[in-house]
TrEMBL record:
<feature type="compositionally biased region" description="Acidic residues">
    <location>
        <begin position="270"/>
        <end position="280"/>
    </location>
</feature>
<keyword id="KW-0732">Signal</keyword>
<dbReference type="InterPro" id="IPR027275">
    <property type="entry name" value="PRC-brl_dom"/>
</dbReference>
<feature type="domain" description="PRC-barrel">
    <location>
        <begin position="54"/>
        <end position="130"/>
    </location>
</feature>
<feature type="signal peptide">
    <location>
        <begin position="1"/>
        <end position="20"/>
    </location>
</feature>
<feature type="region of interest" description="Disordered">
    <location>
        <begin position="163"/>
        <end position="312"/>
    </location>
</feature>
<feature type="compositionally biased region" description="Acidic residues">
    <location>
        <begin position="179"/>
        <end position="193"/>
    </location>
</feature>
<feature type="compositionally biased region" description="Acidic residues">
    <location>
        <begin position="217"/>
        <end position="244"/>
    </location>
</feature>
<feature type="domain" description="PRC-barrel">
    <location>
        <begin position="326"/>
        <end position="388"/>
    </location>
</feature>
<feature type="compositionally biased region" description="Acidic residues">
    <location>
        <begin position="288"/>
        <end position="298"/>
    </location>
</feature>
<protein>
    <submittedName>
        <fullName>PRC-barrel domain-containing protein</fullName>
    </submittedName>
</protein>
<feature type="compositionally biased region" description="Acidic residues">
    <location>
        <begin position="252"/>
        <end position="262"/>
    </location>
</feature>
<dbReference type="InterPro" id="IPR011033">
    <property type="entry name" value="PRC_barrel-like_sf"/>
</dbReference>
<dbReference type="Pfam" id="PF05239">
    <property type="entry name" value="PRC"/>
</dbReference>
Length: 415
């Protein structure tokens, strides 16, 4: 059950209508929010219609407003033209007291690539009611896109350990305290000292024996170390003699290897000269092959269909140009494609993205009937103009190519 009712902390900061920011935030109390029915035992039986569910709040698009605006309780029917979509809510930061400390918004990027998490405080957000959908709302922030792009990225850290829990009587469990040097005789119930010297502080005989044993052990250890040092020096001297002998033998081997290497280099020189002659012959033959291939390529290029012309300056009445970076893959997939005369020539079936996350080409399905017999062709987005209706939601793609010309393009093969 992923649906979470945030009535104590999240609702206190986000509950609608919190659209007007003039009212001061109420102090946090243990009393449930207005409209929330609290059943016996601390359970919430039902919520106020204006309460905000965390599962709905996470994933909401966030719009930046360069200037502060007031919309009142009636809200707006759709996102204001002055707003800029800067990302979506990805998480909510809760204190262990239950209060909402902030909201994490994923800003920037394209198609989920290159996004930066930025944490915003609750008082920087506005919830503007959706006039067409009771209970729905738009999330806005009074800031510019540039300021949000330069904001520091939120760093996720491991949560701090919970404080030691108290017992039901309010006490905290602690280790048992011990008294050093003292034991309790469970049978007699008497205290017995753990220090043997305390029973006989004048036990000088035992102390003398312990001192003599320490001196003997030190003498034996010193004798062993001296003997080991002498043996180590002899081993080092022997190893030095063996190393000198090995170095002399290695010198003879190096001299012999040098003579063999000189012989091999002389033989290799002859082989290189012979290989050079062969390479010269092969390069001459390859030159002839390249020239022939160039002629064939020129012929194929002449016969190949022309690419779609540039649509950089294309405009359509009642529409405005939209950059591809402003749209998602869901917006582009299935989008109808038209020629400059508004004749439908196909539809976009796939968007191609480079390894560094840049949108490069669109795959357009051309021809066919009811999805049967269509031919996929790939066209660079530099040859596509995306037009969005100024007074509506209609979105179209235009190419400077007819349907017949598109059919003559090479068929796109995935992979």
């Amino acid at each position: 059950m992923k649906r979470i009712l945030a009535t104590t902390a999240l609702t206190a900061s986000l509950v609608m209508p919190a659209f007007a920011q003039d009212a001061a935030a109420p102090e946090a109390t243990a009393t449930p929010e207005a409209g929330t029915e609290m059943a016996a035992g601390g359970f919430i039986q039902s919520a106020d219609p204006q309460d905000v569910m965390a599962s709905d709040f996470i994933g909401k698009r966030v719009y930046a407003m360069s200037e502060e605006m007031e919309y009142g309780d009636e809200g707006v029917a759709e996102a204001d033209a002055a707003w800029e979509d800067i990302g979506e809510v990805s998480d909510v930061i809760l204190a262990r007291t239950g209060e909402v400390e902030g909201v994490i918004v994923d800003i920037g990027g394209f198609l989920g690539i290159g996004e930066k998490p930025v944490a915003l405080t609750m008082d920087s957000l506005n919830l503007v009611a959706d006039a067409d959908a009771p209970g729905e709302y738009f999330v806005t922030v009074n800031s510019s896109r540039e300021a949000l792009d330069q904001a520091p990225a939120f760093e996720f850290t491991e949560p701090a350990p919970m404080e030691q829990a108290e017992a039901t009587d309010g006490s905290v469990a602690t280790p048992l305290e011990e008294t050093p040097g003292e034991e309790v005789d469970m049978a007699e119930g008497e205290d017995v000292t753990a220090d043997p010297m305390a029973a006989d502080p004048n036990n000088t005989e035992e102390m003398t024996e312990m001192a003599e044993a320490g001196d003997n052990a030190a003498d034996e250890a010193e004798a062993e170390v001296t003997e080991e040092l002498a043996e180590g020096e002899a081993a080092v001297e022997e190893a030095g003699d063996e190393a000198a002998q090995e170095m002399a033998e290695a010198g003879d081997a190096v001299e012999e290897a040098g003579d063999e290497a000189a012989q091999e280099m002389a033989e290799a020189g002859d082989a290189v000269e012979e290989a050079g002659d062969e390479a010269t012959q092969e390069m001459a033959e390859a030159g002839d092959a390249v020239e022939e291939a160039g002629d064939e390529a020129a012929q194929e290029m002449a016969e190949a269909p022309a690419e779609s012309g540039s649509m950089e300056e294309f405009t359509r009445d009642g529409y405005s140009t939209v950059m591809v970076t402003e749209l998602s893959s869901e917006d582009l997939t299935g989008l109808s494609v038209y020629d400059p005369n508004d004749n439908r020539v196909g539809e976009i079936s796939e968007v191609l993205i480079s390894s560094d996350g840049v949108v490069t080409d669109a795959v357009i399905d051309v021809g066919g009937f009811l999805g049967i017999g269509e031919k996929p062709v790939a066209i660079s987005f530099s040859g596509i103009s995306l037009q969005k209706q100024a007074e509506g939601d209609d979105l179209r793609a235009y190419v400077n190519t007819t349907e017949e010309q598109l059919k003559s393009f090479p068929e796109y093969e995935d992979g």
